[in-house]
Amino acid sequence: MKVKVEVFFKEGVLDPQGKTVKNALQHLGYDEVDDVRVGKVFTLSLKTSDREAARKRVAQMCEKLLSNPVVETYSIDTVEETR
Amino acid sequence: MKCGVVTFPGSNCDQDCYHVLKSVMGQSTDMIFHKDTFFDDDFDLIVLPGGFSYGDYLRPGAIARFSPVMKSVKKAAKIGKLVLGICNGFQILVEANLLPGALLKNIDLKFHCHDVYIKVMNNDSPFTALYEKGEVVKMNIAHADGNYYADNETLDELEQNSQIVFCYCDERGEINENSNPNGSVKNIAGICNVEGNILGLMPHPERCSEEILGSADGKRIFESIITYFERRYACDSRN
Amino acid sequence: MIAETELKLHGLSTEEYQRITEILGRDPNNVELGMYGAMWSEHCSYKNSKRVLKRFPTTGKRVIQGPGENAGIVDIGDNLVAVLKIESHNHPSAVEPFQGAATGVGGIIRDIFAMGARPLALLDSLRFGELDEPRVKYLFSGVVSGISHYGNCVGIPTVGGEVYFDSCYRDNPLVNVMCVGVANKKDIKLAKAVGVGNSVMLVGSSTGRDGIHGASFASEELSEDSESKRPSVQVGDPFMEKLLIEACLEASKKDFVLGVQDLGAAGLTSACCEAAARAGTGMDIDISLVPQREEDMSPYEIMLSESQERMLLIVKRGYEEEVSKIFAKWDLHAVKIGTVTNDGMITVRKEGVKVAQVPAKSLTEGVPEVKRESSQPSYLKKTAVSVNTGINENPEKIFLKLLGSPNLSSKRWVFEQYDHRVGTNTVVKPGSDAAVIRIKGTSKGIALTTDCNSLYCYLDPLEGGKQAVAEAARNIVVTGAEPIAITDCLNFGNPEDPEIFYQVEQCVEGISQAAEFLGIPVVSGNVSFYNESPQRTIFPTPVIGMIGLLENINERCETGFKDNGDIVVLLGEVQGSTEASEYLRYIHDVKAGKPPKINLLQEKKIQQLCLRAVREGVVKSAHDVSLGGLAVALAECCVIGKKGFKGNINCKNLDAALFGESPSRIVVSVSPKNMETLKLLAEQMQIRITVIGTVCESRMTLAFNSSVVIDLPLDEVIDVYENSLERRISAQ
Which of A45, C346, C562, C646 is the most exposed place for a label (fewest CB within 10 A)? Predict the structure, then answer.
């Protein structure tokens, strides 16, 4: 099964990359851009088909390694069944 | 006193720290490979050096904290041995929750390598006893992720416990936005744990321990550590 | 017979194809054609330049290894050697600046540790179009980030180099990277596949499809569809490289590791045939043993992949396990892919079945040499005119404009993004004439620089070649070091154009004359042709990388003024020439005139005088006078030393006095008590010296024939010099 994990900075933590991209977009004339947050996406291929179990394990992975809970939050999406 | 310098894959200041401890300070020093573990009593000082452990992939320090050697480092810290994390070593210490907060990308997203002035905020520590409180010293920084962050609650605790050890300042000791190279909250350049035996800092004292390299201000960190152990062992032998 | 279109795909000419069939006695198959195509490209074979390059002086008492190996080696005494090489990564950087520059850094580092030397310093010689164009800014900041990303992570300090902007580099920026390492003499490893029956092992990264055809790509002009060639740009992994350095250096110390060769352009093909050809042996390899990153890779792809961070080791039979153990410590794999043979052939198999077999030497040396026509460029008739502009503005304003111009202002914005301190050896930091690194455990230091005045080379290729060497040597000498070796990176346009080829010949002749006269051998180098787009061709840019030796690092000298009251003295002629000067180029937008001629004897004497004065402690600072002339040189001494200056120049023309350029000039500062000694030394060596002022506290004041023309607070001079480049970059 494939799982997608997104990691973003928590609200309130300055995201200088997001700010830079926002400025660049506005500079290119996209004035409607109000805010940009830059995050990370991980796609994990897991050797399991148990959706719930997978979610639990991936949540652990996020807490332990994929995100830094001090400054980041994460979201988990089970994308597709493989085969 | 016995020193150990840890080599993680991607460490690149490990030999520099070894050089200073061994050749400049004349201390017995070993290199410790990240796959190894050691006994609590093997080393008095353990240095986590600068560099790009695991290429800084994911987040600086995020993968290194799981190295086998870190178990030993934690145990040694628990019994009061000194742990010094420099640059990437500081990043590893915060990722390992041995120090509070996080180190984010520099606010201008650029790598910065230049000298900075830092102010000694706390000289009541084994690492800084030979500095004057409020003294302004010059050290080199070289990092892309040195922007110290902690939430307000943590910051209050840091201040209450005098855990803020160094702050970026200007030549005259003013701590302000202009003298902040990376966006760190409260210009924080280095902090210690509550017990005071773990220090993490972004500047590189090992690059500033010989006059030929432009500054020897960092040497006093190592001298302070040596003095600390000399006294401790003198006490021990008296008891 | 094969279709011409398919030959073109491999970058081969019909004549070359003919030669291949003669060598093999049959038609080559597709894999073999690919191997010849890559190895016979200009990038790998130097088929256009070989004949010209023979002119370089390559021998000397310190030379242990001249051109032809991964890098050059010179003896620096105490059983130590310095290993040096410069290489271009121009084309990859033009299409993908970040990865192009990053992999350029990675490649040159591998050339150094392949020889068993620990890389100690990097320098980058960079050239771009004019900074006011958004695309140039993109390329410039991309290249700088790429170098910073790779060099910083791998832990080798970037201690110097140069950055130059001119519209001729707009479409074709130059990214030349130099690396210098030091080794114990006994640890040197040559890239030779010696000993029949020994094992060929591949270590480092796995092989993917990246960078296939990189060598032939680098041997074409850039065109509109170069952008779509992005797939041939490789991605670098500096973390992997760092592990590879540690593991290879550990392995190099073992007797059972007999040879080390890096995989650069033309990947496995080039590594195998070069190592075999150098030893006069052959190699039998099976590509199914090569660790692969992608599925279903063909023999062709595996043989030509330019995946980064890979090395080839020649290991004594029976010691493969030992080697694997060393690499496993660093979580790297080391696999045996074949053996050394005595048939002189590169035999490639897939699961045991032969898929290619060609003589190793035919790949490295068999290319039909191309005799290029050469004719004096017609533009020289137009540019070789005497230009007299006169000074049309307040000289102080012009001075500030020049001081803050992209080419003359401090490159702080660039070098502060590079870790130039890691290794704790950087004694003289970037921003000086030459950087100086110490060699721990000795009293020695090495001075390093890269130089080339490409405008001079454009306006007078012979003179430009000479002066590139002379200026590099001057930059080394002012630190107190003795120049000992050159590594050159020859960047030119399309050599098939006789006028371009003339530039090549003349520049090489000039470099050779100066190198011979000053006694500095060329020990390694690189050629990069086809640096042009349909719109423009770059100035001929033969970059000279040079190292010098300080026996006693405590006798070094730096650029900045030291103490108030010190006397500032100019060694050499006071009068400069505005022709071909940066002043003319930047202020008057004129790229013309004849560059001032260098007198090599005079140059040598000035350098000897300076070296003596530095080593005997007679002078406190020394700085080469080059781009921007005397006024800019003095400002640099002020800014770097954080000191003021007050002085006067007596001269004919105001602009020539302030901003005119002339070779063989050095500004020194000397304490009054040593002034007599300096005069005596100068007299002995028949060098003209002129007192031009004194060091003072906080103003820079310069008079011309006793009337003040520049009078500025030091803070303003510092601000303009230090911050102009950053302001220009940040301005949207």
Answer: A45
